[in-house]
């Protein structure tokens, strides 16, 4: 009798576990074009046979499947070729399916097997990433996970991207990231179907790529004095302080990373930012400056060197622009671009062009002579002249040039592509003048912006909540869609000192940007996306990838009526309750629930805020001095 009771309990426990698996939602990011959930599940067997196409084109995908299914699930995986009886069958279509294109796929899960079809290996790669997202979140673990039912729903998915350019930019100049850290960042990009890694390799704070013909670029330009704190507000460093903070990538490391990315269907676009943002170049080769004898050319550390209180283009306190009238500048850029073109197979080389101060150009007799000789009327035309010269070099290497939208101001050639960052209007303008455009507007996809309240974030001059990023449309109204290559999110790293913080700032806003770039506009749904995001938080927990929990924190605003101040708290997502205190105690869900704008008591010193879902705290405890709250009045 005891044995029968034990058997009944085991069966009941098993059924309960299976029921929990049945109820697990389909949470695919980015949302596919078409999802047809048919009911029922396919359970992975202990021994899995994976059939792959002949020819070796899918080697990375084959190895990825074997690695993932062997590790956390502990399955024995065998790879075969063209075996229709396999548990998982990967097929490259013999007859092209025009609907799904080069990056699309069709995934069909029955109670018997999993079939994945695509026209190209890229499609199989993306289909496999979707397959992993259909499995329990423990699939992201780096160790064997017990007591998990390794099953996925019976489902039919047809999927392909909305736009061709789906990019993330990482700035490695302000702070250097190792080869392994770059690879991990690329791995996460691949999970969410990004296909362009824009690598911002040079800036005022460091030159990060070995150029063998110009060794001082890394011998001098890659290193600076370390300063920690609020980047942009440092004191000037001691001139004699050691310059041992920084680093660079050798050309062999670059080749390794390029191949690593290509295996994951990610192209890398290098950026060398000129003519501004060139302090690191000038530190190495001051003869490229308008005023080489000044002695003020060094790799910047985060101390102020530009005046941003001009209402527009910054004024330079120290020179950080190349001399557009010096032929040696173009000789050096030819050497740099020659080596870049050999290292990066991607079509485009990004040359920046943003935020170039005209301060020292306006003082330069060389530039004045150039303007007279070339009949240039203003500094924007001087920059345009510089850009045309650089583009001639790039085109001579078989590549195409891309720049930030400031390059429009003096006129650009028909072959120049534009990255629209100051909103979408410049991209719309460029697309209608038949220039190719990548949309990367600050107000939607600048991931260095604060994603929650300043009390919880490294202080930056602007904010960007997740729900705003989710509104990003890479093909805005008024644009000529034919010339919109796609879109991109950008992570500048002034306030980002390590890869963990880079992850925190990228995710989950990187989820939102991915869905905006891949998924049909009509398939986007904010509430559904929030639910999926929370599911992917669990995946990131198992993957040990850092992310921001800012969606659980309310937006905080303050108004003033007469002598009284009122605090308004606005949750970003549904289903949260907010609790507060002004008496310096820590609120919980036994405190009065926030229901309307709260008046700040006359003698209060601090406000504390926390969110709950049901009876569980879910948001971070936010503590803000009342003095700071009063300063927020608009």
What does it look like?
- The protein has 634 residues and is an alpha/beta fold.
- It is 30% helix and 22% strand.
- An eight-stranded parallel beta barrel has the order 8-9-14-17-18-19-20-21, surrounded by six helices.
- Helix 2 (59-71) links the parallel strand 2 and strand 3 (76-81).
- Helix 4 packs parallel to helix 6 (251-263) and helix 8 (327-343) packs across helix 11.
- The termini are far apart.
Mean pLDDT: 95
**How many helix segments?**
18
Low-confidence stretches: 5-22
| Rg computed from alpha carbons, rounded to a whole number of angstroms | 27 Å
What's the count of strands?
Answer: 28
Coarse structural class: alpha/beta
Widest beta sheet: strand line-up: 8-9-14-17-18-19-20-21
Q: Percent range for helical residues?
A: 25-40%
Strand content: 15-25%
* Major sheet: 8 strands, parallel, barrel
The rough form would be described as globular
Distance between the termini: 74 Å
Short description:
The chain has about 625 residues and is of the alpha/beta class. Helix 4 (about 180-190) packs parallel to helix 6 (about 250-265) and helix 8 (about 325-345) crosses helix 11 (about 380-395).
Topology, please?
Blueprint: H1 2-23, E1 34-43, E2 47-52, H2 59-71, E3 76-81, E4 88-92, E5 105-109, E6 114-118, H3 121-134, E7 151-159, E8 165-171, H4 179-191, E9 196-200, E10 202-203, E11 206-207, H5 216-219, E12 223-224, E13 245-246, H6 251-263, E14 267-274, H7 279-284, E15 306-307, E16 315-316, H8 327-343, E17 348-352, H9 359-363, H10 365-374, H11 379-396, E18 400-404, E19 417-420, H12 425-432, E20 437-439, H13 442-445, H14 466-469, E21 484-491, H15 499-506, H16 509-518, H17 526-543, E22 555-561, E23 564-570, E24 577-581, E25 598-599, E26 606-613, E27 616-617, E28 622-625, H18 626-630
Parallel strand pairs: 2-3, 2-4, 4-6, 8-9, 8-21, 9-14, 14-17, 17-18, 18-19, 19-20, 20-21
Antiparallel strand pairs: 1-7, 5-6, 5-7, 10-11, 12-13, 15-16, 22-23, 23-25, 24-26, 26-27, 26-28
């Amino acid at each position: 009798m005891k044995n029968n009771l034990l058997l009944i309990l085991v069966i009941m426990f098993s059924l309960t576990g299976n029921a929990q698996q049945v109820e697990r939602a389909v949470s695919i990011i980015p949302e596919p074009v078409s999802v047809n959930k048919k009911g029922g599940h396919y359970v992975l067997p202990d021994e899995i046979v994976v059939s792959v196409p002949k020819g070796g084109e899918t080697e990375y995908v084959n190895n990825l499947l074997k690695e993932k299914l062997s590790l956390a699930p502990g399955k024995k995986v065998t790879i075969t070729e063209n075996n229709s009886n396999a548990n998982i069958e990967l097929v490259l279509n013999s007859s092209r399916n025009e609907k799904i294109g080069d990056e699309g796929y069709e995934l069909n899960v029955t109670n018997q097997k999993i079939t994945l079809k695509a026209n190209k290996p890229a499609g199989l790669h993306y289909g496999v990433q979707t397959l992993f997202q259909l499995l329990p979140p423990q699939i992201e673990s780096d160790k064997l996970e017990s007591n998990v039912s390794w099953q996925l729903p019976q489902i039919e998915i047809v999927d392909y991207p909305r736009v061709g350019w789906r990019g993330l930019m990482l700035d490695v100049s302000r702070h250097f990231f190792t080869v392994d850290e770059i690879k991990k960042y690329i791995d996460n990009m691949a999970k969410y179907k990004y296909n362009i890694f824009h690598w911002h390799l040079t800036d005022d704070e460091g030159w990060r790529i070995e150029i063998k013909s110009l060794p001082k670029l890394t011998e001098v330009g890659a290193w600076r004095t370390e300063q920690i704190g609020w980047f942009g507000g440092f004191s000037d460093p001691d001139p004699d302080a050691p310059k041992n903070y920084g680093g660079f990538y050798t050309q062999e490391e670059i080749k390794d990373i390029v191949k690593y990315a290509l295996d994951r269907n990610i192209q890398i676009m290098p950026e060398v930012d000129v003519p501004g943002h060139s302090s690191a170049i000038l530190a190495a080769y001051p003869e490229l400056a308008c005023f080489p004898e000044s002695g003020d050319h060094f790799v910047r550390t985060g101390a102020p060197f530009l005046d941003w209180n001009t209402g527009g283009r910054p004024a330079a306190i120290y020179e950080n622009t190349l001399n557009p009238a010096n032929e040696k500048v173009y000789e050096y850029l030819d050497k740099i671009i020659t080596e870049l073109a050999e290292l990066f197979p991607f079509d485009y080389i990004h040359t920046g062009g943003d935020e170039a101060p005209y301060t020292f150009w306006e003082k330069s007799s060389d530039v004045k002579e150039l303007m007279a000789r070339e009949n240039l009327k203003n500094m924007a035309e001087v920059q345009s002249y510089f850009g045309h010269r650089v583009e001639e070099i790039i085109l001579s290497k078989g590549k195409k040039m891309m720049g930030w939208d400031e390059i429009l101001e003096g006129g650009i050639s028909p072959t120049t592509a534009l990255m629209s960052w100051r909103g979408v209007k410049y991209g719309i303008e460029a697309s209608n003048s038949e220039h190719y455009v990548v949309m990367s507007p600050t107000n939607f996809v600048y991931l260095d912006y604060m994603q929650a309240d300043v009390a919880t974030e490294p202080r930056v001059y602007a904010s960007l909540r997740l729900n705003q990023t989710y509104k990003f449309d890479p093909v805005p109204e008024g644009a000529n869609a034919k010339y919109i290559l796609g879109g991109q999110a950008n992570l500048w790293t002034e306030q980002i000192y390590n890869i963990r913080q880079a992850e925190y700032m990228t995710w989950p806003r990187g989820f939102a940007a991915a869905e905006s770039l891949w998924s049909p506009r009509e398939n986007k749904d904010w509430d559904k996306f929030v639910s999926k995001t929370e599911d992917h938080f669990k995946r990131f927990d198992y993957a040990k990838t850092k992310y921001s929990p800012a969606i659980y924190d309310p937006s905080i605003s303050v108004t003033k009526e007469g002598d009284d101040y009122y605090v308004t708290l606005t949750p970003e997502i549904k289903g949260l309750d907010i609790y507060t205190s002004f008496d310096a105690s820590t609120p919980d869900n036994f405190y009065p629930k926030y229901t309307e704008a709260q008046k700040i008591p006359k003698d209060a010193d601090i406000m504390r805020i926390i969110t709950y879902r049901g009876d569980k705290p879910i948001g971070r405890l936010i503590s803000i001095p009342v003095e700071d709250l009063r300063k927020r009045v608009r």
